[in-house]
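input
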Amino acid sequence: MTEQGKTRLTTNVSEGSLVPSGRTDAYLGIDIGSISTKGVIIDADRRIIARTYLWTEGNPADAARRVVADLGSQVDRDAVRVRAVGTTGSARRLVGAMCGATVVKNEITAHAVGTTFLHPDVRTILEIGGQDSKIICVENGIAVDYAMNTLCAAGTGAFLSSQAHRLGVEVEEFGDIALTSKKPANIAARCTVFAESEVISQLSMETNKCDIINGIHHSVANRVAGLAHRVGVRDQVVMTGGVAQNIGIVNALQEQLGHTIHTSPLTQYNGALGAALFAYQKYLKEQKG
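output
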């Protein structure tokens, strides 16, 4: 059930596609990342009428099918007609082909559009993805510059997930655990291999896990902040993506950057929302001829 009430969508999960039927025009966006896959459906008024977030589990094709199935369970199959589909993320072309996407966009563009739709005044977007981290500069709703870390897993969601596994903690609990720390452990290495060695060293010294987790957050924030300073940070700052729900990372980044970072429960859907908005815009343009 969504905030706007329950609608329905016809799905063909085995083919990973949507079978249109009904009366309400809608637009689907899917953001397929290496760690998580997000999906949203918006209506003709660009309201989100369904959304879902699940783990990719190394299989983006299956993740896309599960996203479609979950979205289908949230909406009324007799009322919704999906007019267009947009995809973004690391497996956007594969899933775009599966779903018959009319629009396939890179993550920079999709996150910029989704974020500015929800936060019109945004000027700096931070996004920590599974395989990379991104800083996007926005002027008047348009992405004008960006910096991206793709050479090392340090400063990414994959690094956080691997350390959560090492510590025997669910990554979703990292933020709350970090809040109980009084002093972050010193994990200063900017390389993944050395950072992992420092985590192991802290464990061998029986350092409290909350301090280790806090130290991991500061290590990631330090790397992302260095990336951000390459392009400059301007208020208003919005953090997007699933890691934005980790209050420990948000606090560490605010400390590093000296800026307030805005988040919301919808920030993890910004990429999928951007893809859906692109699909919506393309459909309207085609209808106008």
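quick obs: The first strand starts at residue 11 and ends at 12.
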